[in-house]
Fold these 4 entries.
Entry 1:
Amino acid sequence: MSTTVAYQKGKNEVANRAYGHTNDKGRWKQTDQSTTSATLGDGGVYSSLDDLAKWDKALSDYSLLSPSEMKPALDPVQPEAGAPEEPNGRPAEYGFGWFLNAYKSHKRMWHYGETVGFRSTIQRFPNDGLTIIILSNRSDLVPADLALKVADIYLPARK
């Protein structure tokens, strides 16, 4: 991963970065994430589709983490009061950093992010060999909805 940066103000720069955009009464204006969401490890990680594809491959072929190291990420915790929720408000099965709710009976690992002017999602279907990554620098899209439309095209129907 040659273009991914964990940005720290005053310590490094983000080359070729995108800026967010927000539609304000029919006019697009450049907006950027808030300083509170641009913390290291949260909104402060800048990457590209190429680098995220490399990261996804490293997860898939266990060259980054071994199967035993990945296990906590893939074992959902039991939902309880205050447990993570999906964006639609339903209780989420959640591992160590991944939402784990199946999609149409397909095993799925997914996550999303959003801040002012940006929306993103990664939807991994490990048993199907499919990963969909959508990065958007506009605030009016729901990348997870778009990703699942793509999944509907590629995933075999299951009953």
Note: The chain has three helices and seven strands.
Entry 2:
Amino acid sequence: MRETLRISTSSAIVLVVFSLVFTGLMAITYQATKPLLEASAQAEKLKLINEVLPPASYDNDLLADAVSLPPMRALGLDNGSKLYRARKAGQPVALVLEAAAPDGYSGRIGLVLAVTADGHLSAVRVTAHKETPGLGDYIDPKKDKNKANPWIAQFNGQSHELAEEGRWKVAKDGGPFAYHTGATISARAVTNATGHALAWAAERRNALFALPTGAKFEEKQP
């Protein structure tokens, strides 16, 4: 009985010591790799931003010049997000923000777009979707077969006035934007969400640029 108890106690002590050592090593490894992981995440974020906003158009630390947005129905976002502000020589250049189309053919379509200080869409990119491969996934330029002139590039340079006048629609709905036959739902979802986000950002651009870095944007109630 005593021998059994001694063996059990020894085994328990060994297990506790092993767990403590393993946990300590994991903590040390995490602390050592954390800066690298954060740097990698920042680099990927900046790479995506530079797809919608030319790097030469701004000279500030764009990722540091950010404000927080609460959940925004107008942007299709159920959770808070970050909005980044590009400047050159201290002057406003563009706002970079997330948006989403909740009504894609296969569900939510994530977007990132840049809106210039004069209210034009610099560009928009799809960040996440589940649209049908080979049919509706042309909304992502990486999967669009037309590499020279991808479908999503038709929004580049368009003015917020088009959205505010209710004309930011695919051609099937009476607007100027093309779509692929048989995959109208995907195109319509991205088009509508992009127009709503452009109009939202253009209307609030002065207030958004004026906020202190790190501040939280609060929508004014009418």
Note: The chain has a mean pLDDT of 86.
Entry 3:
Amino acid sequence: MVMSQDNKTDSNANKGVRDRLLDAAEELFCEHGFEGASIRDIAASADCNIASVNYYFGGKEKLYEEVWRRHLIPMRDARIASIENVMSQSEGQPCLEDLLRSFADTFVGPMVEKSARQLGILMAREWIDRRLPANMFFDDVIKPTMSAMHKALVETCPGLDESKVPLVVLSIAGQLVQVAHIKAIFEQGDEADLPMFDLTEAIEHIVKFSAAGIRAYAKDKSE
């Protein structure tokens, strides 16, 4: 359903200037890319003056970064919280499958929700025309998440060679990203021509498959 101009104005009136700029910028960056989305157009779409972009963000580049951060930071925090939650409730005996399952659910969830569509478009554009600071993904998302998962895996599976943990985490993440992509492909096709795809079943397979591999690593070290 297309929102009328009056309804859009009413919706904007209920939001602060900063949030309106972020909403407008995300929509225009998705539609036109970084270069194609001008500050003038962003400000007009947000019902703000041009100076507000510099006031709140210090320029178009920082506005672009903040559009990304409002997706990435909640995703990162949810993943770390899921890890910490499993470890805190384990009563000293954390279960490897519980850890992997909780991590998988929070990892895949945001990637398959309807709200993830714009993030997917942003990612595709960023892959072609890189505009984010080189270390932003690593410093803001990957490093803290891997650090939390590293600590949890070592505690959950004491025999695991710590030098293998980064590869273990990357392997799990790679499987989960692929499952999310496959789900999107299945949703685009004709269901009558495709086999059944159950996301929950796929995640459970990854959990069991990965747990077996992790324990095999740990066993090899102990022998």
Note: Residues 11 and 150 are 43 Å apart (CA to CA).
Entry 4:
Amino acid sequence: MRLTLGFSPCPNDCFMFDAMVHRRIDLEGLEFDVRMADIEALNAAALAGHIDVSKLSFHAYAYCIGNYVLLDAGSALGRNCGPLLISKREISRDEVARGDLKIAIPGKYTTANFLLSLAFPRATGKCQVLFSEIEGAVLDGTVDAGLIIHENRFTYASKGLKKIIDLGEFWESETGVPIPLGGIVINRALPEDVQHKVNRVMRRSVEHAFANRTASLPFVRANAQEMSEDVMYQHIDLYVNDYSVDLGSEGRRAVEVLFERAGAVGVIPPVSTGLFLGQSTVR
């Protein structure tokens, strides 16, 4: 069976998907047509139902859960890995809370934007900017602050930018659970045995990446633009971990807490469909 597969060119995704894309593992008869894109473009593709298997933000998942279900393998969860709100001048959290600032966000449906809304509900002066261009928008004064994700958390300080708040730390202090950033979903219309087959292949690909750490380096480097190898591996180590192999009970609970908190404040619509592979209804 041939399936469309979407993921980002970021180091963590290339690291996890390398073995699948280059057939280094048993694909159990599956073939994949790869579509690489920025996370908000992947979110949009899933929201439109235009892809079979895809990485997407957990925030976006709430809006397409009727058509997709989350795999146990491939997710990005963790601690001390959340998005950062940064600025060029000194800006206090109280100033952000007043809601007068213009803030660049990496996408309406990103989990980063959900966390910003949770921490600062009055901060509505947002504009969408490609994640890799947010630092530049802050530096040239186009915006007052920027919400950065991915490798930019390793580069902003060297450009003279300042951290206002780490929204991952905010989340962990509020909930005590890891922050769920993104996951791999598959179309619910596909046969259940295919869904589980893709989950097994995804897990196998992540395990292969961990066991053969340098095998994915050419693929990671080819899509990392001018990022240094040190930053690439910092990125991978931050976002790929045991939760990427299997969510487990703690990972599943973190996703449930995210949906509960988001639903309670009206950031996402009510969800009644099961979040996880093999789960028909919300607990």
Note: The first strand starts at residue 2 and ends at 7.
